[in-house]
TrEMBL record:
This is TLC domain-containing protein 2. PROSITE patterns: TLC. One of its GO terms (cellular component) is plasma membrane. It is found in: Membrane. GO terms for biological process: membrane assembly; phospholipid homeostasis; plasma membrane organization; regulation of membrane lipid distribution. It comes from Herrania umbratica. The gene is LOC110416866. Residues 62-279 form the TLC domain. InterPro entries: TLC-dom (IPR006634), TLCD (IPR050846). PANTHER family: CT120 PROTEIN, TLC DOMAIN-CONTAINING PROTEIN.
Length: 280
């Protein structure tokens, strides 16, 4: 769903999501200060890093909140996808393909740098939630983008607190490979590059579709199949239902995203077709 400006004197949605963000931040601080969970400082570091990136882009490039937000999102997708690929390749070389996807490894284990990467990404979602709330970059009674971030913050934070399913969550972040091209498209259009006949635009769309299929559809379906296959191996509790619910939600979001992407592709091609008809 595209992010748009919304002005309202009584923004109930904004108040609710602001309150949940404050509660989340208090929870993180409590764990760090009172429970001595120093490893969670990576969450704070992630949030601070992306906020600093926001300030730099705002000062050096543009003061448009939507452009700045999208640019930082592009930065996050690039850093996260690079980190995930590095973590997966590193683990593959260390243990082999089959062993790294063992149920115990995915649920109870933590690959090198996986915890830190998840913390850093969690910090980004907190920053992004704050930025969208601050500049009203959302719309609707129940803004989908804010709800998406809230759910991710809850899932990521619970996993980080309990040190479970870290590797599963890292696998889900493979979708950031596709998010790179989603954000590139938004930035490209905001700076005025909209010629569908341009080679750059054509290549971007090809990569966009390839990454959508590989990094979102195939990867998330495989994760879902793995969860179903290993359902009996999970201990009784909330881990499997939460994981399954999350993956079903992700697959549904991917389906809706695919529809939106196809519609955007058609809209971008339409002006080109209209211009050709006028010439004829």
């Amino acid at each position: 769903m595209p992010r748009t400006y919304q002005s309202s004197s009584s923004d109930k949605a904004g108040t609710f999501f602001s309150a949940t963000l404050v509660l989340w931040f208090v929870s993180i601080l409590f764990e760090i200060v009172f429970n001595k969970r120093r490893e969670l400082l990576y969450v704070v570091a992630g949030g601070c890093f992306y906020q600093i990136a926001n300030w730099v882009i705002r000062v050096r490039v543009s003061r448009d909140p939507l452009f700045v937000n999208t640019s930082v999102s592009l930065l996050h997708s690039t850093i996260t996808s690079t980190s995930v690929v590095f973590i997966l390749v590193n683990q593959w070389l260390r243990t082999g393909f089959k062993r790294m996807f063992d149920h115990t490894q995915l649920v109870e284990g933590t690959w090198p740098w996986a915890y830190q990467a998840l913390c850093f990404s969690c910090g980004y979602f907190a920053y992004d939630q704050w930025d969208m709330l601050h500049y009203h970059l959302y719309s609707g009674i129940i803004p989908a983008i804010l709800m998406h971030h809230l759910i991710l913050l809850i899932c990521f934070t619970l996993a980080l607190y309990r040190h479970v399913t870290i590797n599963y969550l890292i696998l889900t972040l493979i979708c950031e490979l596709h998010s790179i091209f989603l954000h590139v498209r938004k930035v490209r259009r905001m700076v005025g590059v909209r010629d569908a006949k341009s080679k750059v635009v054509k290549v971007e769309w090809v990569l966009n579709w390839i990454m959508f299929v590989l990094a979102r559809i195939i990867s998330h379906v495989l994760i879902t199949v793995k969860l179903i296959k290993d359902a009996s191996k999970f201990e009784k509790g909330v881990e499997w239902p939460l994981a399954m619910f999350g993956m079903v939600g992700m697959n549904l979001l991917n389906a809706f995203l695919g529809i939106d992407l196809f519609n955007a592709f058609k809209r971008e091609k339409k002006p080109q077709q209209n211009n050709q008809k006028r010439r004829e």
